[in-house]
């Protein structure tokens, strides 16, 4: 009389079996999510910061990375210029101090302050570079992660009856 045909559609099926037939029932398997290479994303971000994010299609991270990089780099360069200025002033004060040859203690303190600030922003710039690579790795590793609001599980069963 009638024939019962069961069709199942999986949300996250095995990639190597696109269609499986079991004793008359047909199971259709949808294509699995595309994956990105974490190594390639890290390499691209190491060469050009933000390139790994482009590869992993995480575009929102790129202006954040470049913004912090430009800010820390410019601040480091400004602190280095001030350090060089006060270092030359301190060296001139040593030459000018013919009695003790020590120079101005205030100029030495200011010079050291700007050197420490320059070094601190260099560390921030290095950390930004490393976090850029880590972000590219995470973006590539989670590329195929399902973020749909459907929380029903891994499989959906759909019944269809056909009468012949």
Describe the structure.
There is one protein chain. This protein is an alpha+beta fold and 164 residues long. The protein has two domains: 1-33 and 149-164, no CATH class; 36-145. The protein contains four helices and four strands. The protein has helices at residues 38-47, 51-55, 61-96, 105-141, and strands spanning 2-10, 19-22, 25-28, 155-163. Strands 2-3-1-4 form a four-stranded mixed β-sheet, with no helix packed on it. β2 (19-22) and β3 form a beta hairpin. α1 runs antiparallel to α4 and α3 packs antiparallel against α4. It is rod-shaped and about 115 Å long. The N and C termini lie close together (7 Å). The relative contact order is 0.22.
Topology:
Layout: E1 2-10, E2 19-22, E3 25-28, H1 38-47, H2 51-55, H3 61-96, H4 105-141, E4 155-163
Parallel strand pairs: 1-3
Antiparallel strand pairs: 1-4, 2-3
Helix pairs in contact: 1-4, 3-4
Number of domains: 2
Report mean pLDDT, rounded to a whole number: 82
- pLDDT under 50 segments (min length 5)? 6-13
In whole angstroms, the N-to-C terminal distance is 7 Å
Most strands sheet: 4 strands, mixed
- Based on secondary structure, the structural category is alpha+beta
Q: How many beta-strand elements?
A: 4
So what's the overall shape? rod-shaped
In order across it, which strands form the biggest sheet? 2-3-1-4
- Beta fraction of the residues? 15-25%
């Amino acid at each position: 009389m009638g024939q019962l045909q069961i069709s199942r559609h999986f949300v996250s099926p095995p990639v190597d079996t696109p269609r499986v037939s079991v004793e008359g029932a047909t199971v259709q398997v949808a294509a699995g999510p595309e994956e990105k290479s974490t190594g390639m994303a890290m390499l691209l971000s190491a060469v050009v910061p933000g390139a790994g994010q482009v590869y992993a299609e995480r575009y929102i991270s790129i202006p954040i990375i470049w913004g912090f990089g430009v800010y820390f780099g410019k601040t480091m360069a400004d602190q280095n210029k001030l350090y060089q200025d006060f270092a030359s002033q301190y060296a001139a004060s040593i030459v000018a101090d013919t009695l003790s040859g020590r120079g101005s203690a205030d100029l030495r303190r200011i010079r050291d302050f700007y050197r420490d600030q320059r070094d601190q922003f260099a560390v921030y710039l290095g950390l930004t570079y490393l976090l850029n690579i880590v972000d590219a790795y995470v973006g590539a590793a989670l590329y195929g992660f399902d973020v749909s609001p459907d929380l029903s599980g891994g499989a959906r069963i759909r019944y269809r009856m056909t009468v012949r």
